[in-house]
Specification:
alpha+beta, signal, 4-stranded mixed beta sheet, 597 residues, 23 strands, 19 helices, SBP_5_dom, D-Maltodextrin-Binding Protein, domain 2
């Protein structure tokens, strides 16, 4: 192991000083190519089903929702995408009318029998109905179920041919959606990849295989695709996307706006995406010029590229730039509330979970594992999300001594010969925590082992790919897992729904189902951001800390680095990628990589 670490350090040091250089950002006759990576294998490319960040990153470039975020506006705001503008809202916030731009076409597919297939309002009706399809088990159905007028007919006896009052194509280019009650977050839902438009003919031509045949209207379309290894996106020649944005006072924003305003998107011809699960491979690839930017530098690699909070001088000399970005992301360790060892709402089970929470050494995590690029998570909400309370502090401290006393008091005082605690009924007690089979995953395993052992708890770790862990989590087969959530939309509802009882088996991996929490969540989601909702959020935080289905961990300050030849880069707080806006200075890339050799 010592030899491997030394060898890895030597490889990275060599890349810092004299990178091998990558092929120029061209393929064929002068094509501009963006070189990217995903950190985990993609799943099927179906907007209604996919939920992992890597797959969503691809989907938002292939499929078109009605709305999209303004690339430059801060705080974030929405704008029309396939809709001509923001919807017309009437009926006291219950009815939304979208007008769809004529002349938007799906990419070619045999299902269209050689004809160009224009997008209509009826296609959005069909696409939204797919989120209700019980055979798909869409993780996004929570955004609409029980909210669209008449959708009980879809929930009780699903059929794509069922007509409901709340979801109507009133003419070829007009979509009207009626809600049972006002929902302040509804426009955000209509900007998620899950609401991207699909064609019924394509879905029905490939029953059960829609994720293998991604046919959308986005700025890119799929070219070469080697699963879990490499995917190439090609410029969609029929893309109708045109850049419009609202720059602030930042000179960088103004320069991007001046460069792009009114221009057709995307700006590159191809995006070549590799799957790079190992941190070292990602870092070496970036330093060698194989990738155009890297976001959220792996915590175990931070010391290799950052020194004293700044980019290392040798990298700055090569023209690279470091950005600090407060991600709308919360890391948390969830515990299965239905697990026979760990779950339940009895006092001794609550005591066990609270002791686990009090064993977590937040300061060590931030300093040693995240290298200072994080802050403590006091609640599920990260900063800059609507509903965040900067004054809220968790009432559950890091206190191993108190955790030990709590376990002793509630029946976990019996010990095995090796000193580990037994259950109150005298049975052996071993916790099983799932983890990712990566360098970072192993480092986190050791931190959790140290924390849990300090309060007398034995823990075993089961490593697997994250996609497999998530599948098992939805089935309730995982006892504990450290996960994270990045905002789908910048509102507290998107985080608090992770613990809403009816979402168990979907985003609620902890399977937390507490009536007092559910009632407050249901009240809060009907309110806009303000004092009344803030009070409900405070009470929900208190319930989370009382029952401890989660251990809130950290909220990340991302270290992002871009190559000098990359143009128009600005990370968005909500959207996963900025690929459609990016451009590549081919000549500068060639000069930089040639000079580095």
């Amino acid at each position: 192991m010592k030899f491997r670490k030394t060898a890895a350090a030597a490889l990275i040091l060599a890349a810092l000083c004299s990178p091998a250089g990558a092929d120029p950002a061209t393929s064929g006759a002068g094509q501009k190519v963006l070189h990217m990576f995903l950190t985990t294998s993609e799943t099927g490319l179906d907007p209604a089903v996919a939920s992992n960040i890597e797959t969503l990153s691809l989907l938002e470039n292939l499929f078109d929702p009605l709305l999209r975020y303004d690339y430059l506006a801060r705080p974030v705001k929405l704008q029309g995408n396939t809709a001509t503008d923001m919807p017309v809202v009437t009926d006291d916030g219950r009815t939304y009318t979208f007008h769809i731009r004529p002349g938007i076409y799906f990419t070619p597919d045999p299902a269209f029998k050689g004809k160009r297939r224009e997008v209509t309002a009826a296609d959005y009706v069909y696409s939204l109905k797919r989120l209700y399809d019980p055979t798909l088990k869409s993780p996004w159905s929570f955004m609409f179920e029980g909210k669209i007028a008449g959708d009980a007919a879809l929930r009780n006896n699903f059929s794509y041919d069922t007509d409901i009052d709340g979801l109507q194509a009133t003419d070829r280019y007009t979509l009207r959606i009626r809600l049972n009650e006002p929902d302040n977050n509804f426009p955000f839902y209509m900007a998620t990849p899950a609401t991207g438009v699909v064609a019924r003919e394509v879905i029905e031509a490939h029953p059960g295989q829609a994720g293998n045949y991604p046919v959308g209207t986005g700025p890119f379309m799929v070219g070469d695709w080697k699963r879990s290894d490499r995917i190439v996106l090609l410029r969609n020649p029929d893309s109708t996307a045109v850049f419009h944005a609202t720059p602030g006072i930042d000179p960088v924003d103004k320069a991007i706006s001046a460069e792009l305003e009114g221009k057709r998107l995307p700006r590159v011809d191809r995006v070549e995406v590799k799957i790079a699960e190992e941190f070292q491979a990602r870092m070496l690839g970036f330093l060698n010029g194989e990738y155009d930017y890297i976001e959220q530098v792996p915590e175990s690699m931070t010391d290799m590229v950052i020194e004293g909070g700044k980019l290392k001088p040798e990298l700055a000399a090569r023209g690279m730039q470091l950005y600090r970005f407060p991600v709308l992301q919360t890391y948390y360790m969830w515990m299965n509330m239905e697990d026979p060892v760990l779950g339940g709402y009895s006092k001794e089970k609550v005591a066990l979970r609270r002791a686990i929470s009090m064993s977590y050494n937040n300061a060590e995590d931030i300093a040693l594992l995240k290298k200072g690029f994080a802050v403590k998570a006091e609640s599920p909400l990260p900063r800059n999300v609507l509903g965040y309370d900067p004054n809220y502090r968790s009432p559950v401290p890091y206190d191993p001594a108190l955790a030990n006393a709590l376990l002793d008091r509630f029946g976990y005082d019996k010990r095995d010969p090796d000193g580990f605690r037994r259950q109150p009924n005298g049975q052996p007690l071993t916790l099983t925590m799932y983890s990712e089979a990566t360098v970072s995953g192993r480092l986190r395993d050791e931190m959790w082992r140290k924390c849990l052992n300090s309060i007398g708890l034995r823990v075993a770790f089961k490593s697997d790919k994250k996609t497999e862990i998530i599948k098992a989590s939805r089935l309730g087969k995982v006892q504990m897992f450290e996960s994270n959530w990045i905002a789908d939309f910048p509102d507290g509802d998107n985080f608090y729904q992770l613990l809403y009882g009816p979402n168990a088996g979907r985003a609620n991996y902890a399977r937390f189902n507490l009536p007092a929490y559910n009632q407050r969540y249901e009240q809060a989601r009907l309110l806009s951001d303000g004092p009344q909702r803030q009070t409900l959020y405070f009470e929900m935080n208190q319930l989370i800390h009382a029952y401890n289905p989660w251990v809130p961990l950290t909220q990340v300050i991302s270290a992002d680095i871009r190559q000098p030849w990359l143009k128009n880069y600005k990370r968005h707080p909500v959207e996963f990628t900025s690929w459609r806006y990016l451009d590549v200075d081919v000549a500068q890339r060639a000069r930089t990589t040639r000079g580095a050799r």
